[in-house]
UniProtKB/TrEMBL annotation:
Residues 509-569 are annotated as: Disordered. This is DUF1570 domain-containing protein. Residues 1-19 form the signal peptide. Residues 515-530 have a biased composition (Gly residues). The keyword Signal applies. Keywords: Signal.
Length: 569
């Protein structure tokens, strides 16, 4: 009898807690977390507050993204899990969070939600750093030089969410400040402002680069006598000035800039911006609990979105099939299954899962995307490629009708012409340009547009779209090649586009297809084919602004928009 009661008692004990994943949806973010509703609400509100503060300080409004083009943040409980996701199964590397910028699928993964006030912790600082990159690229036609790109992200990530509901930005970065004590002579302001000078001795001075970039950005932003110079510097480069020439015209003698920077960084107190409670208005946050199926498949979904190896794809599809068998009427689960089937190379199964998802819920964005991916891949080996690629475009046209500003719907409409061996129509070119405007953080997408513009002898437009690639601090070989092409364009209209295209397509290609793949950036140290006409996406009559040098001064700060406070490093 005693044994029977013991068994009954065991049965009455609560089982291991199931994941209770929640989704927080706001104008600029979607956040998924197995956490409390209160903490998730506060975390997402703070991200929106940070976004609004950046809008005010930079004088830049990237506009509200379409639902699928928001940054999706996954909170996964531990740094070890972050590392397993980033490294596709392996831990290690000391990564505390990462971000991948992709058209229609920009994502970040962090270990925890910071719900307490005060200076942000490491994982939150990484997220804010990477979102600063995302924001600054989203608000600019051109790209800032590496020092400004990284220095700006470090500047804005120096944040504090105050207990009264306000926010402070530009606080001294204590880690970088400590580094400055032993790297101040390793990189001068002149070297940061002259990339040709810097690249001669870049190896081995990465920490000095980040620390001095933060210091230079802080100095040029906060020092009263330098007010307005950064905006001029950005505009001069956008108008075609070489980096050193733009710096000398905007800042004066670069040796004087270096002396001023060194004196500035020796100060015992530095200034930051503080917004009082209620001074900023951020968007509303809506919370919903995920269905049982969505919660169960979330770990699979996160790994699929990050990108997979063939071995990991084979593992994930088995897990996704088992979950889908338990939740056969959950459209979100079936959409995730379609993604894993595609990743595993199973196009027929991917199509079946996508069609099943759409039969239940015709608003499943990812089902349209995965169906289109599978049809495009099948079309590569079809006997009638023209008909197959026409059919492959259909899901993306349907996606465009549902969400006109989804960049992948626009891009794949353009790609349908290319894959059929046709010259893109004017509307297809407008669709491609609009896709880049919507997802300027996707390097692969921008590279496609630049190549197309070179092929069409649109030299100035091509130069504009190569600038962010050339200026990327993590651009590697591709950044160097983009800079060579820009220099060739600036030297005079090239006689032949063939050599420039060959240069861009040289060895060391370090981008994936738009909206797919991609390396994470950890903060520093990234059913059958539908029938019918392909239709035409809503590229609209919007101006793409490819040659609009005055579109934005993203990256520079307008100091008169918030209160200034002094803080000790």
């Amino acid at each position: 009898m005693r044994f029977i009661w013991f068994v009954v008692a065991l049965l009455l004990l609560p089982s291991a807690a199931k994941a209770e994943w929640l989704e927080a949806s706001s104008p600029n973010f979607v956040v998924y977390a197995d956490d409390s509703e209160r903490d998730l609400q506060l975390f997402t509100q703070r991200l929106e507050l940070y976004h609004e503060a950046m809008k005010v300080l930079t004088g830049t409004d990237p506009g509200t993204p379409s639902p699928s083009n928001r940054v999706t943040v996954y909170v996964v409980k531990s740094e070890a899990e972050v590392q397993r996701i980033l490294n596709m199964g392996r831990t290690g590397g000391g990564v505390g969070g990462f971000y991948i910028g992709r058209a229609g699928a920009a994502m970040a993964v962090v270990p925890t939600i910071q719900s307490s006030g005060g200076r942000v912790g490491q994982s939150m600082a990484i997220l804010l750093h990477e979102y600063a990159h995302h924001f600054l690229l989203s608000g600019s036609v051109h790209g800032a030089l590496g020092w400004m790109n990284e220095g700006g992200a470090e500047f804005f990530a120096g944040a504090q969410f105050n207990s009264d509901g306000g926010i402070s930005l530009g606080l001294p970065n204590t880690g970088r400040y400590r580094e400055l004590s032993y790297v101040s002579d390793q990189v001068t302001a002149e070297e940061l402002l002259d990339p040709d000078l810097f690249k001669r001795r870049r190896r081995g001075i990465e920490h000095a680069f980040y620390a001095r970039s933060w210091g230079l950005y802080h100095y040029l932003t906060m020092e009263p006598e330098r007010r307005g110079q950064m905006a001029r510097y950005v505009r001069l480069q956008a108008e075609g000035a070489a980096p050193r020439q733009a710096a000398e015209q905007a800042f004066g003698n670069l040796a004087d800039v270096n002396r001023g920077l060194n004196a500035y960084l020796r100060r015992t107190r530095l200034t930051a911006f503080t917004f009082a409670p209620g001074q900023l208005t951020s968007g509303a946050v809506q919370i919903r609990q995920l269905s049982a199926g969505e919660a169960e498949i979330m770990p699979v979904r996160i790994r699929s979105r990050r990108g997979v190896t063939s071995e990991l794809a084979a593992e994930l599809v088995v897990r996704a099939r088992a979950i889908a068998a338990r939740h056969p009427q959950d459209a979100a689960v079936l959409s995730a299954l379609a993604e894993t089937e595609f990743d595993a190379g199973n196009d027929a199964q991917a199509l079946a899962a996508a069609d099943a998802a759409l039969a239940i819920d015709s608003a499943q964005v990812n089902a349209y995307v995965q169906k289109g991916y599978a049809l495009f891949r099948q079309a590569e080996t079809a006997e009638d490629k023209d008909a197959a690629f026409r059919a492959a475009v259909v899901p993306f046209v349907a996606l465009n009708r549902m969400e006109p500003d989804h960049p992948l719907g626009l891009y794949y409409y353009y790609l349908g012409f290319v894959r059929r061996g046709r010259d893109p129509s004017d509307n297809a070119m407008a669709a491609l340009a609009r896709a880049v405007e919507l997802a300027p953080f996707d390097t692969a997408l921008r590279l496609v547009l630049a190549r197309q513009q070179i092929s069409s002898a649109q030299w100035e437009d091509a130069r504009y779209n190569l600038l962010p690639i050339a200026n990327s601090p993590h651009g590697g070989a591709l950044a160097l090649r983009a800079r060579e092409v820009i220099d060739a364009i600036v030297a005079g209209p090239p006689a032949d586009a063939t050599a420039l295209l060959a240069l861009l397509e040289g060895e060391g290609e370090d981008v994936d297809a738009p909206g797919t793949g991609g390396e994470g950036d950890s903060g520093e140290g990234d059913g059958g084919a539908a029938s019918g006409a392909e239709g035409s996406p809503d590229a609209g009559n919007r101006e793409t602004g490819d040659s609009d040098a005055g579109k934005s001064d993203a990256g520079k700060v307008q100091p008169d928009k918030a209160g200034a406070t002094e803080t000790a490093p």
